[in-house]
Amino acid sequence: MTELRQFSFIKLVLTGLFLAAVSACGGGGGGPGFVGGGIDDPGTGGGGGTGGVSITLTDTDGNPTNTVSESSPGIVLVTVGSAGILVSVTTTVGAIAPASGLSNEDGVASFVLEANDQSGAGTVTATTTGGEASLNFQIESVNAGNNVLVLALTDNAGNPTNNITDISPATLTVTARDAFGQAVANEIVTATASLGVLAPDSGSALTDLTGVATFTISSGGSLGAGSATATLGGASASVNYQIGEANLRIGRFDGGNFVEGEIQAGATSLPAAGSTPLSVTVVEPDDSVVTTVVPVQFSSGCASLSPPLAELPSEVNTVNGVATATFTSAGCTGTDTVTAAIVQGNTQTAAVTLTIATADVNSIAFLDAEPQTIALQGTGGAGRSETSSVSFQVLDTTGAPASGVDVAFTLSTTIGGLSLTNPEATTNEQGIARAIVQAGNVSTSVRVTATIDVSGAQLSTVSDRLIVSTGLPDQNSVSMAAETLNPGGGRDDGVTTVVTVRMADKFNNPVPDGTVAFFTSEYGAIEDSCELTGGGCSVTWTSQEPRLPLIYNDTTGTDPFVSTIFNRPCLYLAGAPSGLPCPLEASVTDPGPIIGRLSAITVIAVGEESFIDTNGNGLYDVGEPFDDLPEAWLDKNDNGQFDNTPPLCTINRATQAGRLCAEGQEEIFFDFDEDGVYDQANGIYNGSLCPQALADAGQCSQQLLHVRRRSLIMMSGETQFVGFYENVDPDPGDGVFVARQVVSTGVFMASGGGARSFEVAVSDEFNNPPPAGASITVSANGCEIIGGDTDTVPSFASTGAYRVGFTVRNQSDNTEDLDGEITITVDVAGRSETFFVGCVDEAG
């Protein structure tokens, strides 16, 4: 309020100037327009007084008023007739300042009246030694939009209620408060009622000095649920209520006599899954049946269970005063109490107790086994349990779960110490009994047989097959494949292909769900991991940078590291110029340069080495062949060994070995034991099937390691280059052309129907084939070709240009020389490039 106080005193100075102006014009005192009534009549801003004292109220612009607000304080003018008279002022609401003052030369003392975070009606009083004067005024609500309404319903005794009957109306009390919690007085509240009769008929009432407005809601002959809403300015609130009939009772008739509190049941003893009709009658106080519709609510212990063991409607309306429902047992046995209650405005209830017989046991069924694959004894660990919980369910003749039934379990085999921790169990409330299977030390499959006694006869069922295995992937059971091996993305970002890994254990059983596989890619980007389900999972590889080695990535200059069609000769094409695709890899004598955008993808997982179990005992024995693994690595130069470890090889741009060495020195390894050193194979079997005695003797190890698999992705470029070659000396033995010559000026055909063999070679700048799905079309105009047409590039990751072969044949029946054109169209990812070669068909 500090700012408001400062504002008030500034206005007080302004008011003084205003009074001076009034005085100069002959004003002052309680001049014309300022005459008002006394305390009982606020008038228009003037107040009565005694002893020659009068009081008036104006706004800050000097206009008469009888209201002030938080944003508009008032000016209290006290006229005493002469100067220098001490005037004291007080107010019952708000605040006035200063508390006293002297009259000026015109006999007037002025004060500022503020709302002071309050609202409502008040009185300001001025007192002098010669008399006093008072003035009534109104402080308006601070902000009508911030009013808060609180609604309450009470009965005739003032007790809270939400039930109304024809003899018990309810009083609706609306309490209005402003944003500061002050009562909002003398304001009109509007109310509506969706059911029943609201009084007063106008639907409006004025709040009193405490901010309360009252209404009455009576039944008006209606029944049901309703809502009352009150509004004041922008504020609104609602309260719900129920209108019912007064003093209704619920029960049944017995020989013409009404029995209160009882449900009429067709039968109180039911067979298993039996049903019975239930009915109650609703009557007036004089035992006459109600003529209006009354909702009745039914409930029971079995029907309220989850899942329910009885079928029972929750609410039924009376017809001619009677509400009827059907109770059906759905597994409920023993006793169950059904209750009926009048929903509307009444707490009367009726009840009946039913006795339901127990159904006979009828069947047993296998539900599930969790997990279905368990680890061999002693090989369990994170995510690999050595036990499985096998569940069966017993049902009775009604199809409902049968609890308390004894179930016996047996195993189809106990090889290797396979066992049951509980040979029997008792069904729970859901009719379920569980057998716990404990793994042995031999890999096998097993089934659990569950047996129950049905009236002296044995009833059995068998579980699905359980697998007892290591649960660990072994090296030779890991495979990986890309959906598309040459998806493209050599220049375009966002080209994708799905990479799928599959893993099985030593016994070629799928590894347990949740086994995690980790991925890395030499180029592009790949999702880091996936969890296997059913032995497999997939991730997405996406084209992006990097696309070349980090350090040894130059493609130009003398002896560059990365091979392109511009910097390596194609020795299959003697004398061919640079810049043309090579039908096979870059060079027969030097196939080792770094091949651009050929990306190695590696997947790893925690697993064990593979071995050949020559004696079939399911365990490793000394002398059995095994796959001895070093730590896994990303093999960038594809030579099958980790090259980034001392002693390092010698990098030489001019030799195949030197360039392989450069690429190998960018290889990384996966440090399984986290010792910071790349570990070579240790010469002994590593895996869970190493017997403890051999492990203690150091002849094998139970220490696990990374199993791994490697695959190549060809990041074929979207820009293609085309070479047009004639096959000069074909070798019919292997179908490979051993001599070619470049066609650069055109194809000249001799007369007489001769034919010549050609091929089109297409690649990107790194001599990689086009992406899968690209099309190469060969057509001719003015000369005849055989073959060609449209060829679609398949999914493959072999380096070297992609080739399409065709034959150009002379037309023997032509009578003049014909000049024509051979057209090669390459379409990659919707981008089409066309190349032309001329042809001449000489007259025959």
Number of strands: 63
Residues in β-strands, percent: 35-45%
Q: What is the first-to-last residue Cα distance? A: 114 Å
| Low-pLDDT sequence parts | 1-45, 730-741
What is the percent of helical residues?
A: under 10%
Biggest sheet overview:
6 strands, antiparallel
Q: Overall mean pLDDT score?
A: 84
What is the oligomer described by this structure?
Answer: single chain
| Rg value | 50 Å
> Count of helices?
3
**Backbone shape:** extended
Given helix and strand content, the structural type is: mainly beta
Tell me what the structure shows:
The structure is a single chain. With 844 residues, this protein is mainly beta. Helices cover 4% and strands 42% of the residues. The strands form 15 sheets. Strands 20, 21, 22, 24, 26 and 28 form a 6-stranded antiparallel β-sheet that branches. Strand 62 (818-828) and strand 63 (831-841) form a beta hairpin. The model is unreliable at 1-45 and 730-741 (pLDDT under 50).
Summarize the structure.
This protein is mostly beta strands and 844 residues long. It is 4% helix and 42% strand. Strands 20, 21, 22, 24, 26 and 28 form a six-stranded antiparallel beta sheet that branches.
For this entry, give a set of tags.
mainly beta, 4% helix, 63 strands, five-stranded antiparallel sheet, six-stranded antiparallel sheet
Q: What is the secondary structure topology, with strand pairs?
A:
Elements: H1 2-24, E1 46-47, E2 54-58, E3 67-68, E4 74-79, E5 86-91, E6 95-97, E7 100-102, E8 108-114, E9 120-128, E10 131-139, E11 148-154, E12 163-164, E13 170-177, E14 188-193, E15 197-199, E16 204-206, E17 212-218, E18 224-232, E19 235-243, E20 249-254, E21 257-260, E22 264-265, E23 269-270, E24 275-283, E25 295-300, E26 310-311, E27 315-317, E28 322-329, E29 334-342, E30 349-356, E31 361-370, E32 373-375, E33 387-396, E34 406-411, E35 419-420, E36 424-426, E37 432-438, E38 444-446, E39 448-454, E40 457-462, E41 466-469, E42 478-482, E43 496-503, E44 516-521, E45 525-526, E46 529-531, E47 536-542, E48 562-563, E49 594-595, E50 598-607, H2 656-664, E51 685-686, H3 692-696, E52 700-701, E53 705-714, E54 721-727, E55 740-742, E56 747-749, E57 755-763, E58 775-781, E59 784-787, E60 789-792, E61 802-809, E62 818-828, E63 831-841
Parallel strand pairs: 3-10, 12-19, 23-30, 32-41, 48-49, 51-52, 56-63
Antiparallel strand pairs: 1-2, 2-4, 4-8, 5-7, 5-9, 6-8, 9-10, 11-13, 13-17, 14-16, 14-18, 15-17, 18-19, 20-21, 20-24, 22-24, 24-28, 25-27, 25-29, 26-28, 29-30, 31-33, 33-37, 34-36, 34-39, 35-37, 38-41, 39-40, 42-43, 43-47, 44-46, 44-50, 45-47, 50-53, 54-55, 54-57, 57-61, 58-60, 58-62, 59-61, ...
